[in-house]
Amino acid sequence: MDLRPATLRSAWTWLAITLAVLACGRPRDTTVRFQASDGTPRYVPHVRAVTVTTVPLLVKEQQGVLPFLKEDFARGGVLDGKEVYAFSPSTITVVQGDTIHFTFINPEDDVHSFVLPDLAVSLPAQKVTTATYVATHAGIFPFVCAIQAHLPMMLGQLVVLSAESMRGAH
Q: Of 30, 56, 79, 106, which has the fewest beta carbons less than 10 angstroms from its beta carbon?
């Protein structure tokens, strides 16, 4: 083994870098780190990454593949003036206080939107769009695409669990 100062310095530098990388890359348990005044664990909000994709279910472009759609999209048909799209996933669950970093993927040539009671995001055709949302209140909040021809089919729900309900969760 070479014990010259330059070699030892390189070894120590390599070891320090390795330990720093391991320390930074190690997952931390942030779920229950603090305690409430009565000593019970308190939920610590998370930052969550959620990807939502727009999905065509029954659209005019499918009439050649699904012949029954011609009648459905015709004047007076059950889909007259409508198209059936969906959000995937259609249910998103977080905890009160969590920050959600949304990534919206719209691979289609139709414009969509993602609208919560206090968030509205335009989803241009064939684009990826991002938005950030903080779930400040517990409850079940509907989200929709506000494009008239996509209502009422293109919808979902954001379920925000109360931070209180997460007491003691690990």
A: 30
